Amino acid sequence: MIELKPEAMIGKGLHRECYIHPENPNRCIKVVVLRGEEETRREQAYYKFLQKRQISWEMLPQFYGVEPTSMGPGAVFDLVRDTDGNVGKTFEHYFESSELTTQNLQGLLESLRALKKYLFHYNIITMSIKPKNIIYQRQDDKTGTAVIIDNIGNSDAIPIGSYSRYFGKIKMVRKWDKFVALLKKDYPDNHPLQAQIVAKLSD
Ligand SMILES: Nc1ncnc2c1ncn2[C@@H]1O[C@H](COP(=O)(O)OP(=O)(O)O)[C@@H](O)[C@H]1O
Ligand SMILES: [Mg+2]
Q1: Alpha carbon of 1 to ligand 2 centroid (Å)
Q2: Both 60 and 111 in a single domain?
Q3: Domain that includes residue 56, residue range
Q4: 63-98 pLDDT per residue, tens
Q5: Which pTM does this prediction carry?
Q6: Are residues 43 and 118 in the same domain?
């Protein structure tokens, strides 16, 4: 059994806590702490589905299965680290500060545009897309990669979008537009974000 120590925790969402894997610094373990069983089931089912397809994992952490931990079943994923070795920070972190947005403007914009292309190219279906669920894997002042760490999968009763590129695209155009609308609504005072990023994410 893997012992998860409080000091190894790197993040916490509504349902789960995320820890550095004690045996592998490039992996993390997520444990459910509050009513996340359904989300976890959907996520793991969707990962299984993606693993059968030949997708690239460049902007999605790989999933390595479930291991028993001191906090219950732990789902093991790639841990996203910046080029300097630090654990990557979310887009929420960058967008909460106009200074950080300005300093990393080009990489934040280009990585989100690349993420959009990637999701459409591989027909990857997500639930709602939120800045707190995307890590900006920073490379340097001008470059980085957007990695989506949470809320992928399809909750439709009949998930046609997962099997049909045509319907998948219709679905994901809506999700992406909602993401852009959310950035407008949640960060009205971040001027570089609104003028230099949001305005260029819709095409
Ligand atoms: N693969 C990862 N690499 C680096 N940090 C991560 C990774 N996955 C999650 N985190 C961190 O842990 C937090 C919670 O993880 P998340 O999967 O979003 O949990 P929840 O399902 O509760 O929202 C994230 O917001 C992020 O800060
Ligand atoms: Mg989350």
Answers
A1: 25
A2: no
A3: 6-78
A4: 999 999 999 999 999 999 999 999 999 999 999 999
A5: 0.97
A6: no
